[in-house]
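Recall the central idea of this unit: under ordinary conditions, the amino acid sequence of a chain determines the structure it adopts. In this exercise we apply that idea directly, starting from the sequence alone.
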Amino acid sequence: MNHIIPALADLPTMPKFLAKLRRLTRARNVASSSAEGRSSKPGTVLDPPPGSAPHGPCAHRDAGATARTTNTAAARLGAAHRATPTITLETLPPELRRQILFATIDLEDLRALVLASPVFYQQYLLDRKPLLGAALTAALGYPSLLAEAYAGQASSSLYPPGVLETNPFLTIQFQYTYRSLRTATTPTILQKACEADLASMVFFYRCVVRPLVTECATRFRKNYGASPELEDLSSTERMRLTRALYRFQLYCNLYVPGRGAERMWLRFQDLEILKGFFGMFTPWEIEEIDCLNHVLLQARGEVTVLGKILRRVPRHKDKNQYMEQAVSARICQVLRWTIQSSRRVLYPSPADQAEARREVSRFTGDREDGPPLAWAVMWQGLYRNRYGSLIPDNLKLWGYVFWDGEWLLSTPVKEAFLETWKAHLPVVRSIIG
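Accordingly, the structure predicted from this sequence is:
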């Protein structure tokens, strides 16, 4: 976005900028008040001594001259005051108003400013696309999430409302599109997206994704009895939750188009979905989607904040219950170990080869592209391309792959996690051999 507003680097932060404007305005008001005070303040050379009055024949002439002098000074002061207009945000030149809008990168602040001021609303309309792109990119926090958001928006138009069957060609073609989007730069994605796309992406993020991150995180923590306070959610924890939500939406857009989703069984087999869609992600990223699917299934039929949020999804308003997606998505069925083992035989992947070579996959800090601590501990620092039904449902309902290592080690859930996995490990070994 640097080419759009080259002067932004010289612009102070929004609070400092507004504070400076307020100080300048106060300084002008004080100066004006002082000038008015000096013109009438007793003790100046134009005033007679206290308690005295003019005498003699020149008294009337002196009084008239004094009055004329006072009136002239007042007129000059009034003209100077009128010549100095009051400084407000709306009276600033368009160039400064534009820079203020681009400096207001918080979505809620930008929305409040645009709704409060007709002048800034008109300025916003002139630069709506770059403003929405800059604000959404800043809100997401990670460039990769912009690609996920755009993929969710672009895939939502593959099957318009009322279409009950998937088209294998459209779905497979978009999978290739999605792969290319994940490697695209932020300017490239912002150039691809039209103004209407960005407006829909901002709406979906504000009304669905962001509140869902909070609600799902709260439910995950409540499931294992931890404090539901979310002020300490880190940027990587929010990133993982946001990424899973966008990918779950993408999955539903590609494979679960409508109420007649049972017809999809004839279009895509479980093995094809596992290979084509889930094969694009690392095993811990697949677990992110599965954990989210489990918490949605848990909330099915409940009149909760979660349900109210999910009903805001524009494409599914006619369903009244977006969580029907989770029921018909059959993610749990696709991620069964029997399907995984068949895929390993028929379509071996580089992840399978990494596991066969016993490559190391240690926890090296909470990073966007690295495994979380819980995953690394679970497989003892080795790369394992195993997920889905091999992992206990309790751990999925805890959202174990979303949490940072520092938080996990500082809470009692660490012991519960290790005990649950240790008790389940013999079952895993008996299944995979």
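Residues 1-12, 28-63, 259-266, 315-323 have pLDDT under 50 and may be disordered.
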